[in-house]
Write a structure and sequence with these properties.
binds nicotinamide-adenine-dinucleotide, NAD(P)-bd_dom_sf, binds magnesium ion, globular, 294 residues, SDR_fam, oxidoreductase activity, acting on CH-OH group of donors, SDR family oxidoreductase, oxidoreductase
């Protein structure tokens, strides 16, 4: 019989060392390195032959989704910023070790032409597109609203919101009936923090986009859902996402008393992409260690 584990004590539960990197950060330089399922995720052929594009697939939550998809039998294209090449190469190795195709498509989602072409490039390289995971995100904390520069405001909205719209518009050329769109939103879209005002606004905008698109695309047989993570140990948090003084106890005020690891979200991305979710659309799944989303 398999051992039953206490979720409080699964994965890393000690204090984190303070550590800071410039945006967007490299997870291969983090201590501890986030667990994205390289060894801890086991596939069950739930996405055999599917083709998926995952933005922000080099690290963190997107990497966990990309790795799980490959382990479930899908080919996977990932997008990331060129500074993140070393993280992306690691993901490529894991996908290829599963015998699946890995397509690396670096580029900046603030560039509308790039964001639009990305979808077509991915579909071309994989000969189709069944699953679109829009997960790339920017989060820069500011303790005083007056310190949110216009540049930060525009970048955060462009990456987190506008690129979702641009990419979905293009993806409709490729997504078949049975296709699935998944957007990584956040608990911040439900319970905004004082220091993440601009970011939280983008995460609420994503919530509303998910619900609008689920209604519009139901007729085509395309499902649209979201995932709303709570505090997950990723590069986003140590590259301007949180003040350094919040790093040691990051995630420890959740009911489960610790930060989540990216792999703990992987099964939900797989479920939402798979036919097991045939009657699930327009929903947002909280994966928060117990913090309420409502
Ligand atoms: P991460 O830093 O590992 O991933 C974010 C990715 O976004 C980066 O790897 C980068 O490739 C991509 N990105 C950022 N700016 C980009 C740009 N201009 N062009 C192209 N790609 C760009 O961190 P993560 O926490 O895994 O973030 C993934 C998603 O999860 C984000 O949407 C984030 O808002 C959301 N989220 C994270 C947490 C958390 O606690 N980590 C909580 C809630 C929501
Ligand atoms: Mg990254």
């Amino acid at each position: 019989m398999a051992e039953l584990n206490n979720p409080k004590h699964m994965f890393y539960e000690d204090k984190f060392e303070k550590q800071e990197q410039p945006y967007p950060g490299l997870q291969n330089k983090m201590e501890p390195v986030p667990d994205c399922g390289e060894k801890s995720y086991t596939g069950h052929s739930r996405l055999e032959g599917r083709k998926a594009l995952v933005t922000g697939g080099d690290s963190g939550i997107g990497r966990a989704a990309a790795i799980a998809y490959a382990k479930e039998g899908a080919d996977v294209a990932i997008n990331y910023l060129s500074d993140e090449e070393s993280d992306a190469q690691e993901v490529k190795s894991v996908i290829e070790a599963e015998g699946r195709k890995a397509v690396l498509l670096p580029g900046d989602l603030r560039d509308e032409d790039f964001a639009r072409n990305l979808v077509h490039d991915a579909a071309k390289a994989m000969d189709g597109l069944d699953i679109l995971v829009m997960n790339a995100g920017m989060q820069q904390y500011q303790k005083d609203v007056r310190d949110i520069s216009t540049e930060q405001l525009k970048d955060t909205f462009t990456i987190n919101v506008f690129s979702n719209v641009w990419m979905l518009q293009e993806a409709l050329e490729h997504l078949p009936s049975g296709g699935s769109v998944i957007i990584t939103t956040s608990i911040q879209g439900f319970s905004p923090s004082d220091i993440l005002a601009d970011y939280a606004m983008t995460k609420s905008a994503q919530r509303s986009f998910i619900i609008s698109m689920a209604q519009q695309l139901g007729e085509k047989g395309i499902r649209v859902n979201g995932v709303a993570p709570g505090p997950i140990w990723t590069a986003l948090q140590i590259s301007g996402g949180q003040p350094q003084e919040s790093i040691p106890e990051f995630g420890q005020t959740t009911p489960l008393g610790r930060a989540g690891q990216p792999v703990e979200l992987a099964d939900t991305y797989v479920l939402l992409a798979s036919e097991s979710a045939s009657y699930i659309t327009g929903q947002i799944y909280g994966i928060t260690g117990g913090m309420p989303i409502n």
